[in-house]
From TrEMBL:
Pathway given in the UniProt record: Amino-acid biosynthesis; L-histidine biosynthesis; L-histidine from 5-phospho-alpha-D-ribose 1-diphosphate: step 1/9
Residue ranges of domain Histidine biosynthesis HisG C-terminal in the record: 210-282
Main location: cytoplasm
Gene3D superfamilies hit by this protein: 3.30.70.120, Periplasmic binding protein-like II
Domain of life: Bacteria
This protein's encoding gene: hisG
Cofactor(s) the protein needs: Mg(2+)
Regulation: Feedback inhibited by histidine.
Functional description taken from the UniProt entry: Catalyzes the condensation of ATP and 5-phosphoribose 1-diphosphate to form N'-(5'-phosphoribosyl)-ATP (PR-ATP). Has a crucial role in the pathway because the rate of histidine biosynthesis seems to be controlled primarily by regulation of HisG enzymatic activity.
InterPro entries registered for this protein in UniProt: ATP-PRT_HisG_long (IPR020621), ATP_PRibTrfase_cat (IPR013820), ATP_PRibTrfase_CS (IPR018198), ATP_PRibTrfase_HisG (IPR001348), HisG_C (IPR013115), N-reg_PII-like_a/b (IPR011322), N-reg_PII/ATP_PRibTrfase_C (IPR015867)
Keywords annotated in UniProt: Amino-acid biosynthesis, ATP-binding, Cytoplasm, Glycosyltransferase, Histidine biosynthesis, Magnesium, Metal-binding, Nucleotide-binding, Transferase
Protein name: ATP phosphoribosyltransferase
The family this protein is said to belong to: Belongs to the ATP phosphoribosyltransferase family. Long subfamily.
Amino acid sequence: MTKIRIAIQKSGRLNEDSIEILKNCGISIDNGKDQLKASARNFPMEVFYLRNGDIPQYLKDGVVDIAIIGENVLIEKGEGIGFDVRLGFSKCKVSLAVPKEVKYSSINYFEGKRIATSYPNTVKGYLKEKGISADIHIINGSVEIAPNIGLADGICDIVSSGSTLFKNGLKEVEVMLKSEAVLAVSPKISEERKKILTKLQFRIEAVLTARQSKYVLLNAPNNKLDKIISLLPGMRSPTVLPLAEEGWSSVHTVINKNKFWEVIDELKQAGAEGILVCPIEKMVL
Ligand SMILES: Nc1ncnc2c1ncn2[C@@H]1O[C@H](COP(=O)(O)OP(=O)(O)OP(=O)(O)O)[C@@H](O)[C@H]1O
Ligand SMILES: O=P(O)(O)OC[C@H]1O[C@H](OP(=O)(O)OP(=O)(O)O)[C@H](O)[C@@H]1O
Ligand SMILES: [Mg+2]
């Protein structure tokens, strides 16, 4: 039987969320701690546990068909590799930073300067576009220490909360790109495996849509129903069921999880009571 071959990070920031999203898609796999290759138990899929930085080459060579990988790594090393699903986790930026005492006014600061980074292609591309030429020092980790030990005048690295920069006396001065985990596809994927990919994409969409949504149930007096329903932008229109108590109804609907916080006060003011908000596991529109 043909199986789709997926690469996921062996260990690191993407590992757990990658396994979790497959699990939410109903695909159960081993966590890769001992085995570097595993077969899914209930989907035509083989999983390869690899270093994140090695994955673009495997995709280019067609050794794996798809991968869960940071968009930033695809931009750095994955020329010609496309993706069509953003997965909503591992959100970060790739930024330029300088010591906090530097009076930074523009990108011209970097002209002729030394920049330490694990993302040489991204930095070179960015600076070229701005007409700046700098000296790039490639280092594979602990990049933020480079200015402190006299190795560089600035750095380019991943920034999320900004706490690593702060602790190392640096400040972010340019955001070069924003990234999150994506489902990348090998340009060499076969037609047969593309069919399996379509099934997987359908399941991922259902999981991602559900993650954005909440199932809301509330009770309301019948004479307030119109107002309450107008506050609830649902999938189609809310379900309204009579309660045992005369003159009251139960209203059920699905709303975007952020939207809920915007309307909660208005719902209460309009007379809604006993409001329940529940997670949704899968959602097919
Ligand atoms: N602080 C962070 N916050 C959010 N996402 C991050 C952060 N650091 C990294 N990422 C994202 O997670 C991905 C994996 O990061 P991680 O540090 O686990 O791997 P790595 O050490 O770069 O790779 P490898 O698997 O090759 O050792 C990055 O490529 C990036 O997309
Ligand atoms: O803005 P922050 O929230 O501080 O996150 C940014 C840091 O996170 C990543 O390192 P990680 O912790 O993955 O360590 P690594 O260098 O060993 O990969 C990245 O390389 C930064 O150093
Ligand atoms: Mg890291």
